Amino acid sequence: MSLLTVEELSVEYVGLKPAAATRAVTGVSFTLEPGEIMALVGGSGCGKTSVALALTKLLPRHATRVAGRVLWQEQNVLEMSDDALRRIRGGTIAYVFQDPSASLNPVLTIGAQLLEAIEHHAGISGAAARQAAVEWLDRVGIASASERLGAYPHEFSGGMQQRVCLAMALAARPALLIADEPTSALDVTLQLQILRLLRDLQRTLHLTVLLISHDLTVVERLAHRVGVMAHGALVELGPAAQILGQPHHSATQELLRCRSMLRLPQG
Q1: What is the b/e burial string over 43-66, where b = at least 16 CB atoms within 10 angstroms of the residue's CB?
Q2: First to last CA, the chain
Q3: Which of 69, 136, 202, 257 has its CA 20 to 30 A from that of 23?
Q4: What was the pLDDT predicted at 68?
């Protein structure tokens, strides 16, 4: 049985004039299977982040219209109550976003933020929660984890901040991790480190991952399946080797051409 099933998902941004709504996503359908990494790729504005946010109704309600079905454990997420959604978000479905500095509260210590996530989603507190926080920081590769609990986000590099965000997302042992451009704000060396960490954690924790990216090099390193989006539609979907090796749609071919151009030597 699929872990998540998306059927004919559509997203419109309403704005101030509902009659002039902008369609961002049109009729997107796919499944996520337990233990796989699936990537949604496409250029800026293709709708991939709108899909990711719509899966748990994170889009602003006053400015969007969402249609279709998102089935999680045989229930349509789009019809869930606010209380049910709060139990899912950050619990069984967790997110890691592009900019870790925007995801962390600058006036709270790393430990306070990680403890809040653990206490809220894992249901433990006190010394046990603190021990869990130390273990998660250690697991994502932060040295001297117990001492770093008292540090503030600005005392961490961008790569270390993203490791903290991973620890916060995974502390509740989610079944699904949605990673929206998790390395694009980092330099090349840090990107490789975070990608290796994400791959190792996915294997160790048996996670299902939905990776949102415009970077085919990242996708090539991680994904089992790839879905290509263009103009709000899912135009190609299949095994990563097939999509990246024998693309059929012009949007996929253009993404691959752009990657090849970026690899040309200088001079």
Answers
A1: eeebbbbbbbbbbbbebeeeebeb
A2: 52
A3: 257
A4: 97
Can you read off the two tokens belonging to residue 179? 């990673």
Rounded to whole angstroms, the Cα distance separating 93 from 11 reads 20
Quick one: how many helices (H) and strands (E) in the chain?
Answer: 11, 10
What string of DSSP letters covers 121-176? HT---HHHHHHHHHHHHHHTT-SSHHHHTT--GGGS-HHHHHHHHHHHHHTT--SE
- Pairing relation of β-strands 208-213 and 37-41? parallel
The helix/strand/coil state of 225 is strand
The pLDDT score that the predictor gives to residue 257 is 85
Please provide the size of the chain in residues: 267
Please provide the average confidence, as pLDDT, over all residues in the chain: 90
DSSP of 53-85, one letter per residue?
HHTTT-S-GGGEEEEEEEEETTEEGGG--HHHH
Retrieve residue 89's tokens: 């978000």
Q: How many CA atoms lie within 13 A of 186 on its CB side?
A: 24
Question: What is the signed CA dihedral for 114, 119, 125, 131, rounded to 10 degrees?
Answer: -30
What pLDDT is stored for residue 263 in this prediction? 47
